[in-house]
Amino acid sequence: MSNKTVELIAPLSGLFVPIEAVPDPVFSQKMVGDGVSIDPTSNVLQAPAAGKITQLASTFHALTLTTIDGLQILLHIGLDTVMLKGEGFRPLVKEGDTVTVGQPLIEFNESVIAAHGKSSMTEIVIANGDMVASLQPARGFAHAGKTVALTVTLVGDFAAAETTAAPAGNISDAIRVPNPTGLHARPAAVVANTAKTFKSDIKLVRGGEEANAKSVVSIMGLEVQNNDEIQIKATGVDAAEAIKALVELIRSGSGEDCGAAASPTAAPKPVAVPRPAPKAHSEDPNVLLGVSASPGLAVGQIFQVRQEVIEVREAGDNPQLERRRLEDALKEARQQLEGLKAEISDASKAEIFSAHQELLADPELLDLALSAVSAGKSAPFAWKQAFTTYADKLARLKNELLAGRANDIRDIGRRVLRLLTGVKEAALEVPDNAILIAEELTPSDTASLDRNKVLGFATTGGGATSHVAILARSLNIPAICGIEEAVLELANGTNVILDGTKGSLRKNPSEAEIQDIRARQATLAKKRDEELAAAGQAAITTDGVHIEVVANIGGLEDAQQSVTLGGEGVGLLRSEFLYLERTDAPTEEEQTKIYGDIAKALGTERTLVIRTLDVGGDKPLPYLPMPAEENPFLGVRGIRLCLAAPEILRTQVRGILRAAPYSKLHIMFPMIASLEEVREAKKIVAEERAALGVTADVKVGIMVEVPSTAVMSEIFAREVDFFSIGTNDLTQYTLAMDRGHPKLAKQADALHPGVLRLIAMTVKGAHAHGKWVGVCGGIASDPLAVPVLLGIGVDELSVSVPAIPAIKAMVRKLNKAECQKLATEVLQMGTVAEVRARLSGLVD
């Protein structure tokens, strides 16, 4: 029989801290007992289990809860808080009370505790350790009343009493890894995220080596290659379930399409481990060779980029203070990465920064840093030591894909280090027509390049599979990686021609070559200047049809910029920026202010379309815990989540409605798939509007992102004031292709005839009832798509802010009648290739 296992739930929200790291020897040396600590972000202590309050300190800072199994759980709020003599503590129970799981026990004022120089770090300790066979503390972030804090296996008579507990430890049979390039970053992330849904301690075993299955870095460090055999080892209450799920996941390719290789009956085929090719050398002394990272041609002057050195102090202050500094820096880094994601129009490329956010939460990386902090090191020193150790470990790997991710570790590492030290990222004073040269550029560097000045770049490190190369291609910046190191000796201002397609850099080009390329550049620059100069003009076709060109924005700064670039309003305000990367929901007052500020920036003559919260299984909120979903894109997200948590929606609607006096306000609901959803959401708006006494004309519309809504558009048009088509999701759901999938993303093309037909169906249904239709997905900003969208009958184009002048200029050159003929022709085509071939000749 297995011993009985008891799960104790987190009594507070906050970061789990190993009991050994608590800066008080009474707890760290386990004089009271073993357990775990929480650095709290909430202030109401909850019961971790059902039981009886057998002791309550007279100063109300601690109590003992005895469970029905006889476990004595000491809950101690703060360190040395007994000295406060009860100040800042309010008991919600008394000795002898019987309590249930999650019941509030003590409320405390963290400000009072901090004002007296005390720590609010709270300990959960098993006082009668003789009952405990084993104890597994949790790691990461705790959600009060939700997260398991301690998994305790009991001894004695309990062994016979419990017959259903999972075995304490299991190991799977050998699994052959089918992924052609092994468990590199993407499949490693899939495995780690799945492992995190289980409570057990889970390891990947290869030969005599083990890796933490919940750590992306640890998995990559195991360097699992194609056809390697690995095992899954798990210890804990759900070990068997964890092993079964991970075995199936890895055999299926861990989210990658491995073809026949994923079949258990397929004969294994040896796959060569990717290795960086030896750097080529040109016979021409004026040519330096590397690897093509991003195609394109540029002529400009060399500008050498040198990486700054950030000095850190080794000795730390109080470990609790250093830990808080690290936590604050990590939180701010996540927010910065969220901002970078919003700036990348290609969703699959923006996911690079989602991967960076995952690395910031990597348990092994955090444990390494926190251990050093507990040993007396400063937060900057501990963090720098942790991320450089991991980056160096990855860089030494044989697999080029995995070794290339060392650059990502250094990128997030330096981001956090700058925040810890207060060293601002050095602003590059890049000259015009610059060709950047560096040993390495990070994804963050690449995403923030000034495209008005930087024409291309070359690095001596990296390769075509690096995230820097991927970003360069998405930003259309010609780039070379792995170029000869002699490039670092070129003087600033040296004229060169960079050929990203061939992977070559030519020094000392002839004047004729330079003039030819510069002439082409000048033509494009003149065109951009003309578009910007005319940005304030309306987008009216040559036959007199006005198309409203508005902006997709993610905050106040975007709104202000859109006005300066000629935007006629906002077609999509993504309100998620108010909700993400925080531990509690934004208040009504916070939302009222930001929506009001954005509305005022636009003015009463411009439209403001605010999309209600669009998060869910793929973008979870820490303060709205949800179970893990096998396919979050088909799960509880968008309006489904908001209707399941109506108070969040009601609070947002009230905040939005208060912006009504300042602009032409529109409320838009995402992920609508049924009339019932629309009616329920509209009912909430009507109730809140009546309660607030809002009399302004506030329009209510929906996103068209799923095929059912497009097919039923005429019926939906009877219920709403407008439609906005989100072509990114509509394409994904129409073609059943994940737009972030490594192999299918290119096929998930919004110019697919099936998607265009659904757009046409939406427009026809809406216009039948006099309702307008906008497009706010990626193709609204695509010059190739604009003529056919106009021809289909779209009334509004909501585009990325920088694209506003160019799209308006393009509309002014088009003839609506001719576009209608084009659309009729295109809608009869059968393939994306045919559509693109027909449209490509229309764009200069």
TrEMBL record:
Localization: Cytoplasm
PTS EIIA type-1 domain location: 24-128
EC category name: transferase
Chief location of this protein within or outside the cell: cytoplasm
Cofactor(s), names only, from the UniProt record: Mg(2+)
Domain HPr positions: 170-257
Coiled coil, from the record: 323-350
EC code(s) of this entry: 2.7.3.9
Location of the region described as Disordered in the Swiss-Prot/TrEMBL record: 257-280
Catalysed reaction, written as an equation: L-histidyl-[protein] + phosphoenolpyruvate = N(pros)-phospho-L-histidyl-[protein] + pyruvate
A GO biological-process term: phosphoenolpyruvate-dependent sugar phosphotransferase system
GO CC field: cytoplasm
Entry annotated with the keyword Zinc: no
InterPro entries: Dup_hybrid_motif (IPR011055), HPr-like (IPR000032), HPr-like_sf (IPR035895), PEP-util_enz_mobile_dom (IPR008279), PEP-utilizing_PTS_enzyme (IPR050499), PEP_util_C (IPR000121), PEP_util_CS (IPR023151), Phosphohistidine_dom_sf (IPR036637)
Keywords of the record: Coiled coil, Cytoplasm, Kinase, Magnesium, Metal-binding, Phosphotransferase system, Sugar transport, Transferase, Transport
Family: Belongs to the PEP-utilizing enzyme family.
Protein name: phosphoenolpyruvate--protein phosphotransferase
